[in-house]
Amino acid sequence: MNACQQIQALFEREMLLFSQLLEFFKTEKDVLKKRDTDALQTLQLEKQPIVAELEQLQKETDSVLKNAGFKNGLADINAFISQQETHEQGKLQKLWQELAALGEKCHMENLTIGGIVELNRLQVEAALGILRGSKMGPAEYNTEGRLENNAVSQSLAKA
Q1: What is d(CA 90, CA 88) in angstroms, rounded to the nearest whole number?
Q2: What CATH number is associated with residue 99?
Q3: Containing domain of residue 20, as a range?
């Protein structure tokens, strides 16, 4: 298998994995909304091998590119594609664009999930503050540049 065929096969596998990852993200959002921690933990365990394989495929792609004379590996993917025969160029360029679009979708979904997790964390923090009888105030930076919360907390027994 030549470098072009190897890259094509790697891209196709990555696209399949990114598609699976997108499905995980959709399920993960639903699970987060339901606050089902057991299902979330199961999802994380199932998602981890996909992420690990994606990382491995990127390393393999980088290696194939370096072996083909492109010292910067993935950073030189466009240069690699442009040096292929015309019929291969179009095919590889299309795959690369689709792969980049899928990667961007995954990135955006991951950011959305991160936002949901952060919002849930803030809600739990606020609820615990109320239960403890904390005086909730805006967070401020101290003289060392660290974020400090002005909340004064009591144990749940005192609150």
Answers
A1: 6
A2: 1.20.58.300
A3: 3-134
154 in a domain, yes or no?
Answer: no
Q: How many domains does the chain have?
A: 1
CA distance 132 to 151: 10
Which residues are registered as beta bridge partners of 141? 147
Kindly give the confidence (pLDDT) of every residue in the chain, 159 residues in length, as a single tens digit, with 9 standing for 90 and above: 899 999 999 999 999 999 999 999 999 998 988 888 899 899 989 999 999 999 999 999 999 999 999 988 777 999 999 999 988 999 999 999 999 999 999 999 999 988 888 887 887 787 777 787 765 555 667 777 776 655 555 555 554
Residue 155 covered by a domain: no
Inside any domain, residue 13: yes
Report which of 96, 71, 67, 69 is spatially closest to residue 81, judged by C-alpha positions: 96
As given in the structure block, the two tokens for residue 107 are 């990135």
